């Protein structure tokens, strides 16, 4: 048996820089050649170069930007250093945005998340909105994996961020850049989501939805989508808590209003996110009743007509009808009256090669038909059986849902 492999070798930034200098001074290499030779030599030796700034010593680097930012006095950022701070943040963002450069890993390894988070805590929003937007932009780049999200959490990032979002709630630049950080920080980290909930981000979301009703804060919807996605099993997911809070605070009215606005504006991202949120809210009987009472079904059909060419929006709409009709013959009847049956048939015909839409349509049809004989008759009369059988034949992922739909439509040969 071969001996176990040794641990990967590492090198400090200082040692790497010294090797490049030796290539230039002792061997007479040009700077670019000296750098490339150092990288190749160390790589051949199995040295891990991740987190190492690979540039000629003396040239600008993201570490230099971070070191300058770290040297800022501990008090608030005011006066003449604002322009310098803005320039440093722009350079850091530019360097970390270069694909394949490794600068994000370098910055994170060298305290970038902690430095920018600390910087944000010192920025007075009233006089430094531009600086704060840039700082949030840098954070959104650096928080790219679980290491970054944990560093953000442990350095007090959630509290700093929510504080600025509350103070800048009427400032679009702050909201858009800030909620971008929320989305990045909460991705795959349920602990960070819980931190945001403890800071009452649900109330903040409702306030923004109420005051910015035209979907102008695009990153807000990205943040909502992430917050409602359970993707970390370390603690109980927080999406149920968010949904409950939103519903109890009049959020259904706001979500339906946002759905209306997204249709008028043709904003499919907002439409999908709001539909996803409404689908989760519809899980309780009281919320189902409220959605129906507020003409939610009719408004969803209107939305689907505006996005008739967008299968991603249509499948979200059908998901809501599926939830609203679950174990509710009355809601199933109302859904058919609103046009849910026509929606299913037209969408299945138009997007016959889209498996997820076909599957969602089958699930909706099942709930529309299972305890409503009149709906069965209407759906079969409109030719739904042919659509379902084609979905089952063409898409393996639809087989179970299609078979269940055929059965609940009352067809004896549902399994053939």
From TrEMBL:
SUPFAM superfamilies: ARM repeat (SSF48371). Keywords: Repeat. It comes from the Eukaryota. PANTHER family: ARMADILLO REPEAT-CONTAINING PROTEIN 6. This is Armadillo repeat-containing protein 6. It comes from Linum tenue. The lineage of its organism: Eukaryota, Viridiplantae, Streptophyta, Embryophyta, Tracheophyta.
């Amino acid at each position: 048996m071969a001996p176990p492999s040794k641990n990967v070798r590492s090198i400090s930034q200082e040692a790497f820089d010294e090797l490049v200098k030796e290539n230039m001074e002792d061997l007479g290499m040009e700077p670019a050649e000296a750098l490339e030779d150092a990288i190749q030599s160390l790589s051949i030796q199995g040295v891990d170069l991740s987190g190492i700034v690979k540039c000629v010593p003396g040239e600008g680097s993201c570490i230099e930007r971070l070191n300058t930012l770290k040297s800022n006095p501990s008090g608030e950022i005011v006066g003449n250093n604002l322009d310098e701070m803005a320039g440093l943040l722009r350079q850091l963002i530019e360097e970390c945005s270069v694909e394949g450069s490794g600068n994000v890993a370098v910055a994170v390894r060298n305290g970038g998340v902690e430095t920018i988070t600390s910087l944000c805590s010192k920025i007075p929003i009233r006089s430094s909105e531009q600086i704060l937007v840039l700082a949030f932009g840098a954070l959104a780049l650096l928080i790219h994996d679980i290491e970054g999200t944990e560093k953000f959490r442990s350095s007090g990032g959630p509290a700093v961020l929510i504080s600025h979002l509350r103070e800048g709630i009427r400032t679009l630049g702050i909201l858009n850049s800030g909620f971008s950080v929320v989305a990045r920080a909460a991705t795959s980290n349920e602990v960070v989501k819980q931190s945001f909930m403890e800071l009452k981000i649900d109330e903040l979301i409702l306030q923004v939805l109420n005051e910015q009703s035209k979907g102008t804060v695009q990153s807000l919807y990205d943040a909502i989508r992430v917050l409602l996605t359970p993707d970390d099993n370390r603690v109980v997911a927080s999406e149920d808590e968010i949904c409950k809070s939103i519903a109890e605070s009049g959020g259904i009215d706001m979500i339906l209003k946002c759905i209306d606005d997204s249709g008028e504006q043709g904003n499919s991202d907002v439409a999908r996110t709001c539909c996803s949120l409404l689908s989760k809210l519809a899980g309780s009987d009281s919320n189902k009743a409220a959605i129906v009472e507020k003409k939610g079904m009719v408004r969803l059909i209107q939305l689907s007509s505006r996005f008739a060419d967008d299968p991603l929006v249509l499948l979200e709409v059908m998901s809501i009808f599926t939830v609203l009709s679950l174990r509710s013959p009355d809601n199933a009847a109302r859904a058919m009256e609103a046009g849910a049956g026509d929606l299913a048939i037209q969408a299945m015909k138009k997007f016959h090669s889209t498996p997820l839409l076909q599957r969602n349509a089958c699930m909706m049809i099942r709930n529309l038909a299972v305890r409503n004989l009149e709906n069965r008759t209407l759906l079969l009369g409109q030719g739904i059986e042919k659509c379902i059988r084609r979905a089952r034949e063409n898409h393996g992922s639809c087989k179970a849902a299609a078979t269940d739909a055929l059965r609940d439509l009352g067809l004896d040969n549902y399994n053939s």
